[in-house]
């Protein structure tokens, strides 16, 4: 029985998978973006690049959602897939060694080990899937379970097991070989060869006693004298020469029988193992995603499957959205927010006090978009969104080439690169950009950027300390409307009763309240100085 080589847990059909492999239907979301948003350690894969699995195709996302729902609701699936992952890794390592080894006994024995691993993998999956078929909802997970069940019940699989057991038993029993050497009249070696392969190791004996008694035949497994090249005093070249001679002889002994076994491996097992090897990156993504979601739920965070809307709607509407990285790291209650992009605001200017949650909500939006386009649940109570064609970030930590360009030059160069790449289906997340220059210059450059992003038609967040920029939103919108730009609006990280609430509200900022908050926090207010002077008198 040969498995369908196009079987996939992440793609609904062969054509969709082929298009993704060619780079179509795949958004530009780089590893650097994932890292900057805070998801790097949670979604890092060993068997593939995570960026290979993003998709802009709503049908593919919905297909994955069904698969992931099964893995989440039927935990036996995840446990079974997790159990075979190290086995598949071992198979890949064996193949890597085997490809460089040629036709040798070592490689023949490697093929036996691969089959043992393959059978172990199938058995673990079959045992793990036992009794869960009726609880599975997605067709592709059901197909995988049925395939594994059919494999284990097939006559060929049973015969394979029997042959493996017999051959591996014989091979594992080999502990030593008996070597014969012909001598001439002067006791010089003329010919040498392997006489037998033995199930027992030879033992070192009392050489003097054997010689004196001339008793050389009572125990064929007792050595009366070691071969010189294996003596500890001999150099490595002499050891290797004898080892090579023995290996060549053993190869000749095994060549016919094990080579026939290798043919079975090539014709049947390798093709069926390929089915599992090809699934390995997909399995890792699903298992890693399930573990990530479980961690969030363990911290009291809600997760939900997003409603996927057409790309042309440019939608993003979330209730109870939170930052997953903060939820897992911070020792405080999870703060949730409602965020909605609409015709009045596809781009938001986000202002607020320092450490008031601006960066947190900016990354939360990016996290939700990224997780959704992998097909995973997202950290929110409810959410609907459209896939994006690309996601770009510009955070202070990303500034690098400051020696040649200076901080402002580096920021502008990076922003220019984003501006050249972004399109109407992109998302941009800018956090404290242009903070390296004065307010006047920064506001001017930021206004130009906002106008450009608006006319391009993308959506996103411009988080900034420039409160006067948010105050100019109406002026910027008026200019953008002449060119058909999307709406720009203001949102604020709020302060309630003088304290940071970490709640995001949609309104214009009050710059004075933030300035007062900073002066009070650091003891810079005039009133405080007056009070101190009065107290000193």
The number of distinct helices, counting runs of at least 4 residues, comes to 18
- The average pLDDT is 82
- Write the CATH architecture name of the largest domain: 3-Layer(aba) Sandwich
Poorly predicted regions are: 398-405
> Number of DSSP strands?
14
Q: Classify the fold: give the CATH topology of the largest domain.
A: Rossmann fold
Strand arrangement, major sheet: 10-11-12-8-13-14
Computed over alpha carbons, the radius of gyration is 34 Å
Instruction: Give a quick account of the main beta sheet: strands, pairing sense, barrel closure.
Output: 6 strands, mixed
Structural class: alpha/beta
CATH superfamily of the largest domain: P-loop containing nucleotide triphosphate hydrolases
Which term fits the overall shape? elongated
CATH C-level class of the largest domain = Alpha Beta
Number of domains: 3
Please state roughly what percent of the residues sit in beta strands, choosing from under 5%, 5-15%, 15-25%, 25-35%, 35-45% or over 45%.
5-15%
Task: Indicate the percent of residues in helices.
Answer: 40-55%
Descriptive report:
The protein is an alpha/beta fold and 537 residues long. It has three domains: 170 residues; 60 residues, no CATH class; 205 residues, P-loop containing nucleotide triphosphate hydrolases (Rossmann fold, 3-Layer(aba) Sandwich). The protein is 53% helix and 14% strand. The strands form four sheets. A six-stranded mixed beta sheet has the order 10-11-12-8-13-14, with helices on both faces. Strand 3, helix 9 and strand 4 form a beta-alpha-beta unit. The longest helix has 63 residues. About 1% of the residues have low confidence.
């Amino acid at each position: 029985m040969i498995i369908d080589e196009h079987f996939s847990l992440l793609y609904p059909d062969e054509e969709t998978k082929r298009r993704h492999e060619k780079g179509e239907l795949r958004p530009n979301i780089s590893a650097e973006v994932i890292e900057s948003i805070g998801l790097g350690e949670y979604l890092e894969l060993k068997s593939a690049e995570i960026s290979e699995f993003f998709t802009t195709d709503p049908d593919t996302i919905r297909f994955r959602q069904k698969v992931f729902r099964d893995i989440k609701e039927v935990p036996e699936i995840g446990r079974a897939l997790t159990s075979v992952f190290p086995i598949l890794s071992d198979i890949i390592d064996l193949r890597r060694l085997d490809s460089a080894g040629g036709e040798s006994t070592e490689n023949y024995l490697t093929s036996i080990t691969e089959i043992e691993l393959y059978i172990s993998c199938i058995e673990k999956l079959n045992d793990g899937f036992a009794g869960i078929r009726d609880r599975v909802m997605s067709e592709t997970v059901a197909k995988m379970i049925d395939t594994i069940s059919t494999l284990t019940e097939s006559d060929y699989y049973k015969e394979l097991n029997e042959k493996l057991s017999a051959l591996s038993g014989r091979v594992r029993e080999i502990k030593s070989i008996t070597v014969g050497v012909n001598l001439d009249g002067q006791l010089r070696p003329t010919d040498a060869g392997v006489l037998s392969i033995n199930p027992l190791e030879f033992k070192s004996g009392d050489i003097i006693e054997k010689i004196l008694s001339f008793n050389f035949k009572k125990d064929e497994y007792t050595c009366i004298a070691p071969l010189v090249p294996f003596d500890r005093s001999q150099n490595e070249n002499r050891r290797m020469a004898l080892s090579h001679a023995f290996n060549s002889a053993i190869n000749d002994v095994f060549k016919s029988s094990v080579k026939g076994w290798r043919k079975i491996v090539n014709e049947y097992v390798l093709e069926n193992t390929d089915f599992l090897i090809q699934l390995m990156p997909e399995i890792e993504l699903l298992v890693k995603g399930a573990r990530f979601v479980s961690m969030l739920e363990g911290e009291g965070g809600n997760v939900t499957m997003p409603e996927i809307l057409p790309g042309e709607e440019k939608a993003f509407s979330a209730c109870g959205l939170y930052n997953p990285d903060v939820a897992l790291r911070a020792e405080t209650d999870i703060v949730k927010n409602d965020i909605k992009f609409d015709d009045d605001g596809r781009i938001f200017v986000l202002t607020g006090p320092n450490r008031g949650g601006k960066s947190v909500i900016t990354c939360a939006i990016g996290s939700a978009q990224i997780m959704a386009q992998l097909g995973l649940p997202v950290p929110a109570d409810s959410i609907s969104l459209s896939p994006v064609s690309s996601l770009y970030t510009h955070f202070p930590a990303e500034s690098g080439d400051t020696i040649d360009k200076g901080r402002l030059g580096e920021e502008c160069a990076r922003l220019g690169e984003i501006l050249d790449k972004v399109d109407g289906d992109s998302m941009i997340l800018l956090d404290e950009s242009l903070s390296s220059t004065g307010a006047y210059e920064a506001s001017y450059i930021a206004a130009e950027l906002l106008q450009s992003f608006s006319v391009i038609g993308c959506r996103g967040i411009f988080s900034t300390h420039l409160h006067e920029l948010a105050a100019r939103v109406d002026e910027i919108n008026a200019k953008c409307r002449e060119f058909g730009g999307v709406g720009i609006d203001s949102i604020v990280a709020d302060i309630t009763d003088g304290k940071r609430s970490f709640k995001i509200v949609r309104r214009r900022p009050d710059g004075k309240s933030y300035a007062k908050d900073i002066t009070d926090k650091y003891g810079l207010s005039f009133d405080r100085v007056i009070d101190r002077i009065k107290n000193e008198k």
